[in-house]
Amino acid sequence: GDMVVATAVCQHDMDTSGLGDPVGMVSGLNQIFFETDKALQELALESARDKDFKCVTGVIATGDQFMKDTVKGEFIAATFKAVAVEMEGGAIGQVCAVNKIPFLVIRVMSDCADDGANVDYAVFLDGAAKESMEVVKGIAESYAS
């Protein structure tokens, strides 16, 4: 149920280490991390505080798999200093970086990316989506005023 406001995103399953690159390096861009917009981070944190949501900041790691492997989750957390893992944000960050578009990724965690993730996800999905929407609405209202 914790909300994560990304300070940066990365692709944890990008791996050209066989060519000498560090794990996570996006070839062609020569970047591992894509930083989110600081002003948008602040708006999201303010919106979350206004709604009394528990919120943390940090790196969100993206990969093309539903994470339910504790050992792999620990590897991702250690390798990328990630506080959350998901499946979309890194791609958004990469596209925005290439096109020089400010972006932000927020997530409300629906599971712990461990052996029980598939059960937790189904239980907490609706609540996670609603909390995320509340924060996004708060950001939009800040822009409108």
Structure description:
The protein is an alpha/beta fold and 145 residues long. The chain has a single domain, classed as Rossmann fold (3-Layer(aba) Sandwich), CATH 3.40.50.1580. It contains four helices and five strands, in the order ββαβαβαβα. Strands 1, 2, 3, 4 and 5 form a five-stranded mixed β-sheet that branches. Strand 3, helix 2 and strand 4 form a beta-alpha-beta unit. Helix 1 packs across helix 4. It is globular, with a radius of gyration of 15 Å.
List the helices and strands and how they pair.
Blueprint: E1 3-11, E2 33-35, H1 38-50, E3 55-62, H2 70-80, E4 82-86, H3 89-98, E5 106-108, H4 117-144
Parallel strand pairs: 1-3, 3-4
Antiparallel strand pairs: 1-2, 1-5
The CATH architecture designation is: 3-Layer(aba) Sandwich
Structure class: alpha/beta
Q: Strand share of the residues? A: 15-25%
Helix percentage range:
40-55%
Uncertain parts: none
Order of helices and strands: EEHEHEHEH
CATH topology name, in short, is Rossmann fold
Q: What is the CATH class? A: Alpha Beta
Number of domains: 1
Q: What is the count of helical runs?
A: 4
Rg (CA only): 15 Å
Mass-distribution shape: globular
Quaternary state, please? single chain
Say which CATH homologous superfamily is assigned. Nucleoside phosphorylase domain
**Main sheet: strands, sense, barrel:** 5 strands, mixed
Average predicted local confidence, pLDDT: 87
